Every structure is written in structure tokens, then in C-alpha cells.
Amino acid sequence: MVWSKRFGKELLKPVKEYTYSSSFDNFLFLYDIRCVTNHCKLLCNLGIIEEKDYIRILRFLDSYKSLPYNINKQEDIHLFVESLIINHLGVIGNTIRTARSRNDLTNTDLKLWFKEKIRSLSYKILHFLKFLLYKSLDNFNVPFPCFTHSQIAQPSTFGHYLLAYYEMLKRNLRKITFFESLHSACPLGSCASVGTRFHINRKILSHLLHFSNACNNSLDGVSDRDYIVDYLFVCSNVMMHLSRLSEDIIIYCSTPIGIIDLSDSICTGSSLMPQKKNPDLFELIRSNACMVHGFLNTFINIINKQSTTYNKDMQNDKVLSTSCCTLVTNTMSVIIRSINEIFVNTRQSNFLISSHYSLATDLAEALTIHGVAYKESHNIVSDIIRYLSYNKIPLHKVDTHTITNINVLYSLIFDRLDLAKYIDTKSSIYSKNNLGNTSPIRVIYQVYYAIRYLQCFPI
Ligand code: ARG
Description:
By secondary structure, the chain is mainly alpha-helical. It folds into three domains: 4-98, Fumarase/aspartase (N-terminal domain) (Fumarase C, Chain B, domain 1); 103-190 and 223-350, Fumarase C, Chain A, domain 2 (Up-down Bundle); 356-453, Ribonucleotide Reductase Protein R1, domain 1. It contains 19 helices and six strands. Strands 1-2 form a two-stranded antiparallel ribbon. A two-stranded parallel sheet has the order 3-4. The structure holds arginine (ARG).
């Protein structure tokens, strides 16, 4: 054991098992090799390692990269890599620990791993955004009810609906880009906490490891886990959006609503009820989002309670990071594959739009166009809707005769307008033609600009 000379007794087996991280930190193997070899290069520059020994270490670790390995006997991945060098190359392995500690090494390994994971998450989001845009274009004029408070509100299009998710995930992508520049400092060389008397050139070391600079403060260098907090936050934000999308799909494809059809290839059945077709996939995404939010909450709590610099509590950063990364990567992959298996049931969609007075606002706006203040228009149309719903008359069946029956004064106003034009779903949808509105023309514009935006996106 690396520090056993300090103690008079062997570590108890259960304590060993409880404190070792080798069962979950082996994913850092290649990153640890990168850090160790580059650090050795600087030790070589200082004359602490001879050039020939440095080359032997380099060649050995390089050849070992692709071999199977079992680190379980070692305390962690860092001591495993050190033991490999000592076992294969002998005493030169005893020098590699000069001017660095596992405290800065573990943070640097993990930060390097995150740089890659962040990149692959960006690509996945970018991929999904493109799918959303093409699907929006396919559905640019497909009528789809918009809900507020889970009640049918106004007619929209499925294309417009999907573009809302494009915007949400685009914000996530932009956040990630910022993340990359914010967390670009290399902790290696901070050593255990205060640095070292050996003149390690930290700037060169950080460039060798493809960081943009060395961290400014060595205490912060071993303490800092903000990049994990930010990663967990971005993942939580992505999963929150995917969970809301899933929640919508679950509701929209539910038996009583039925405005969305899911292809058989993304549904699951029941072992008992032969007729069932369940949206299990989306229910699981909803649940996995909660798990990811839990990771963020847990990790903030772990860091929150620690005094400055390194504490063993931090070791669990690896468990949380890998669990979160696996869950989010799998979720992104499955949603990308599934988005094209979701279809609008246009018959049901049109039925819900026309049978729930979703054009009432259009009618009120029509009155305002013809000179009635909106508050008054709202009152008049509310009065009309109350009558219609009581008598079970749908809005598209209303004519001036019905209006006269409700209130003869109303008919004086309604006589002045082309009623049919305002109680038509298509004309309602096309009339919302301001920036970001639901009109199919706007949807096409938005998709067009979004495609150009993504083409220039800096990743
Ligand atoms: N396995 C440890 C971790 O993952 C590495 C750092 C250990 N440092 C120490 N002083 N015990 O956090």
C-alpha cells in the first residue's frame, strides 16, 4: 500500500473495500496515462527523469493502452498506473510521483474525460436539433391543438410545437459551448494543495494536455468541481426538457386524447391485456430525468459540506459523473431514433380543435378589429360560449341567427364582420404571423433560419 509505512497495522479488509475507488474509476485509465506521460516529460525537462527512462515509460504506457487490465487490487487508477510502471520497468517508476499528487491528478483525469463527454453531448444535441427541424418542416401546417393548464387553448401546428423544443435544446447547446471555455484550466501541478518546489512549467503542461491554461490557484485546483456541477446542471436541464416532451407525448397519445400516434416500433405491450400499446419509453425518460436531477442535487450537497482543497468525499464524483453521463447519452440516443416514429392523428387533432371552442379568442379579436375594446370583446364572446356550450352547439355551427338569439345587440356588431372567416381553423392558424408565431409561413422561416444557425454553430 502506498502509505503503509506510516502505520503500524494493516488496513481492515472492509475499510479497504469501502474506501478503494478501483471498482469504479478504471474509466480514467487512458486519461491517467496521458497525464502521467506528459508530467514525466516535464520531469525529464527538469532532469528528474533521464531522457531514456522517459522514453521507456512513454513506450511502455503506449503499448499498454490497448491491453486488458484489472486494477482491482490497487487503491485507485492512479496507483494502478504507477504500479504498472514499477512492475514492468523497475525503480524508474519510483520517480514519477515527484511534483504531483493524486489530488491534482484525479481532478485533471476527470476534467479531460469531461471535455470529451461534453463534446459528445453537444453532438448528440445538435443531431437531435436537426431531427426536430426536419420534423417541424414535415408538419409545418399540420393543425395541432395548443394546451394551457392541460385544457385546449388555441389551434396551432405540430411544426410550431416541435420548434418550441428546438429552442429549448438550442439553449442547452449554447450553454455547453460556454461551459467549454469556462472550464479550460488545468489543475495538474497543484500537487496536494499548495504546489511544489520543483519548477514544473505548468503552462507547458496544460498545453500538452490540451487545456487552454493552467489553473491560477493550486488550492482551487484541487478543490474545484464546478465543471461537474455545470455538467450535471446542463444534463438536468436537457433531461427536464426531454421529460416535458415525454410528458406531452404520454398525454397526447393517451386513449382519451389520441392526437399523437406512436409507431409500433417504439411502444411496448402488456403481458395481460392484449390490446395495450404503452408509451413506456417516454415514461422512462420522465423517470430518468428525476434520477439526473437527483445526481445534481446529491453532488451539490457533497461539495457543499467540504472544507477547501481535497477531501475523500470527492471520490464519489466519478460515480455520479459516469451514472449521469450514461443515462443522458442513452436518453439522447433513444430520443433521436424515436422522434420520427411520432405522428399526428390529424382527424382527432382537428376534432379536438373544433369541438372545444378553441377559436373563441379569434372571435374576440375579430370584434376588436371591428372597433370593440378587447375587454368588451372578451365579455361578449364569453357570453356566447356559455350559451353554446350549454346548448351543445359547436362554434363552427354558429351563424348570425344564433347570435341574435343570444343577444340582439351582439348581432349589430356581428353583422359587420365575416363570421365564417374567424371561426375557421386554417385561417386562425395562418393569421398568427408575427415573429415566432404559429403560422405555417413563420414555421418555415424559423426552420430556415435555424438550419442556417446550426450550420455555423461552432462545434
Ligand atoms: N481515488 C481518489 C479520488 O478519486 C484519488 C485521490 C486520493 N487522494 C488522497 N489523498 N487520498 O478522489
